[in-house]
Amino acid sequence: MSDRKAIRPYHQPAGGWGALKALSEHLVEQGVAIKGAATLSRMNQPQGFDCPGCAWPDPKHTSSFEFCENGGKAVAWEATAKRCTPEFFAAHSVTELSGWSDYELEMVGRLTHPMAYDAASDRYLPVSWDEAFAIVGRHLNALPDPNMAEFYTSGRTSNEAAFLYQLFVREYGTNNFPDCSNMCHEATSVGLPQSLGVGKGTVLLEDFDKTDCIFILGQNPGTNSPRMMTSLRNASRRGAAIISFNPFRERALERFQAPQSPIEMATLTSTQISSRLYQVRVGGDIAVLKGLMKVMVEADDTARASEQPEILDWDFIRGHTTGIEALADDLRATQWDAIERQSGLPRAEIEHAARVYMKAERAIIVYGMGITQHRRGACNVQQLANLALLRGHIGREGAGLCPVRGHSNVQGDRTVGITEVPGEEFLGRLEHRFGFKPPAADGHNVVTALEAMIRGEVKVFFAMGGNFAAAIPDWQTTQAALRSLDLTVHVSTKLNRSHLVHGRDAVILPCLGRTEIDIQATGPQSITVEDSMSMVHASAGRNTPASAHLLSEPAIVAGVARATLGARSVVDWDNLVADYDRIRDAIEDVFPIFQGYNARIRVPGGFHLTSTARERIWATPSGKANFLIFDGLGEDPQQNDPEALWLTTVRSHDQYNSTLYSMSDRYRGVYGQRDVVFLNEREMKRRGLAAGDRVDLVTLSTDGVERAVRNFSVVGYSFPDGCCAAYYPETNPLIPLYAHDPLSFTPSAKGVPIRIVRSGSPGEGDLDGEG
Ligand SMILES: Nc1nc2c(c(=O)[nH]1)N[C@H]1C(S)=C(S)[C@@H](COP(=O)(O)OP(=O)(O)OC[C@H]3O[C@@H](n4cnc5c(=O)[nH]c(N)nc54)[C@H](O)[C@@H]3O)O[C@H]1N2
Ligand SMILES: Nc1nc2c(c(=O)[nH]1)N[C@H]1C(S)=C(S)[C@@H](COP(=O)(O)OP(=O)(O)OC[C@H]3O[C@@H](n4cnc5c(=O)[nH]c(N)nc54)[C@H](O)[C@@H]3O)O[C@H]1N2
Ligand SMILES: [Mo]
């Protein structure tokens, strides 16, 4: 959609007619208006496919069609009529394509043939599948050490493909599994087990119908998990309090018009979502959380002194937790002026939010990237666990922690063995089931894989999906490292940046998407995925594949495994791929929680993978849930530059990670452009800037390396002091690789200290409308 550049505030609620219009335009643009509508009707249905968009659960996968603008876009993006063919590659050199925008690259359409890079012509040329597999096998077998290869996974990959992938990689001999979750919810996977003994959420969808209070921190449901709006709307209409903490006044956190509601649609009314939305400073959440808990602990002190009813759930705390005294002492000693400075919120507002929380019998705490993608991301998550534990909100109906996962199967991939730090029990079961000794040494995550590449210790990079080169931080250094490799391999559905930031040899392996029929030797297959709430269910595509030359992800893994391991493999790859039930049987043998896997996915709605914390069983060394203390309030104590503006990098309403559906961001009122920085009027004035001025964003690096993006346009916006926002991935060059959480290694994409300077070149002055 070629929107004209403009800044034009959006006055409608989220959802509603605006969402219907946007989706229908998108279907037309992808050339799938009719097929798209038929495809959408099978989304998240008992016999249909799982939405390839987000990981939000569906009401048992048994409901009637639930309209979701962004789920619809994700489906139309995959079902598009456009094709990226060998003729296209013949017409455009890689150097030429490198000058195209990310939007233009993916708009070419679905990949149709396996392709291999030819340096002489600087082009990708078509190859047979056997040749493509042979190139990969030859490179992998040439490495003196399997740890010189990295095997990335993006979270759309099914349980079946992910399990086969880790099986192949471990039989090949490494645990190098950098995963998209390393840039996403790793802070949850690493932080929560120390608190609760599990690294996943503790709520189910039905808990949203029973709660009296929902806190949403650093998550944007109207854009990134729009089906959640149904739960939020219902909760709000029941009178549950919804409190949001976000530097942006995200529209869907304010008002939502349900496309499913004939009354709201006909009368143009909407439902208020948040009872209060607090514009917290970027990186100010620790301060807010400590403030909330300080109010609670001190109110409890007072109540107990005067024999009033207790505020904290002492029965729960005494029976189930450790560490309360130390935490309470730390909170009592924390000063309000520091909390106010760091959070950007007045004490009275934090006290108000605390009172709402203290009144609630059952509270759910929802969070996303605004919490995890910080230098202290895992600690942020642990403070959320503290907040829940103080009132006994874990393992109680209508209450709990709700990390909103990103990719539709990112959680499942982890569950079936995509991990760089495999446990002994898992490795033992894998060895017992398959009869080879898997490697035990820890492998690389995203950050350590990149560091190893930069040191020249890696020769091969293999990606099962995703767009690694765009998703990672510090492009100047990290993309150079990717270019220095011997081989890069991408299993993909569409052309993207990662195919152009390639090694000496490079292969693109085009695969089936989730909406497409997957036929193997025994007939049509279904795959399975696990959503944010640990529900596992089947998914089967119905569309004719985009090209007759595509293979499924499991078949591609089997092909690579055969070409690499040959007769030395102990796995019968063809047999497993012939019938995905056999892969599921193998998963069940290795992971006992999948007991009865094949039978249970044939029940509509699938099944729930139990979470010990939900049962109040604490799988921690202490056998209890642990209150953990965060020392101080700041996320980066090294960074005291008074000039620093804290930059957060966010998604627009019209993108799926590195996939751009358009150059606009309707709810935030930005059209036809993404090179913008959101800044409040005070911060603009302080710098002598006006809306539309062109500026460079420069990282306040501590390693002497210059990191900058240039010629961004200033957008005046309601935003807290001392911080600013811009879009991901355009601003990824600004995030230093060293700026990651020491516990979870999550890059600090939501907290980069920068300064803003006027650009050398003149502005384009192309804005119309208000601003
Ligand atoms: N349509 C669509 N759906 C998606 C995706 C997509 O790109 N498009 N991506 C998928 C993936 S992989 C993921 S991980 C999820 C991401 O979904 P979200 O977790 O919602 O991710 P973001 O949009 O990056 O940022 C979340 C929110 O955090 C706020 N924020 C930024 N910094 C801070 C901070 O310091 N504190 C607080 N409290 N808030 C802050 C931002 O303003 C934004 O509203 O969505 C998934 N679903
Ligand atoms: N600055 C900044 N950086 C970030 C973030 C941020 O908020 N700010 N967010 C981070 C997060 S949360 C994440 S999850 C990562 C995302 O990182 P990735 O998961 O690596 O990236 P995506 O953009 O989701 O990948 C898109 C590509 O996936 C391929 N694809 C799509 N569907 C399929 C499929 O079914 N199979 C296969 N094999 N390929 C498919 C297509 O070729 C498409 O081009 O980015 C991270 N990077
Ligand atoms: Mo993500």
Please describe what this structure looks like:
The protein is α/β, with parallel strands linked by helices. It has 4 domains: 8-78, no CATH class; 83-184 and 434-603, 3-Layer(aba) Sandwich (Rossmann fold); 186-403, Dimethylsulfoxide Reductase, domain 2, CATH 3.40.228.10; 645-758, Barwin-like endoglucanases (Beta Barrel), CATH 2.40.40.20. Helix content is 36%, strand content 16%. It is built from 31 helices and 33 strands. A 6-stranded mixed β-sheet has the order 6-5-18-17-16-7. A 6-stranded mixed barrel has the order 25-32-29-31-30-33. A 5-stranded parallel β-sheet has the order 12-9-8-14-15, sandwiched between helices. Helix 1 crosses helix 2 and helix 7 crosses helix 27. The longest helix has 21 residues, at 285-305. It is globular and about 75 Å long. The model is unreliable at 762-771 (pLDDT under 50). Bound molecules: ligand MGD (2 copies) and molybdenum atom. One ligand MGD is lined by residues 106, 154, 156, 180, 183-184, 369, 373, 406-407, 464-468, 471, 491-494, 496, 511, 513-514, 553, 649, 657-659, 728-729, 732, 735, 749. Residues 645-753 form the Molybdopterin dinucleotide-binding domain. Residues 110-490 form the Molybdopterin oxidoreductase domain.
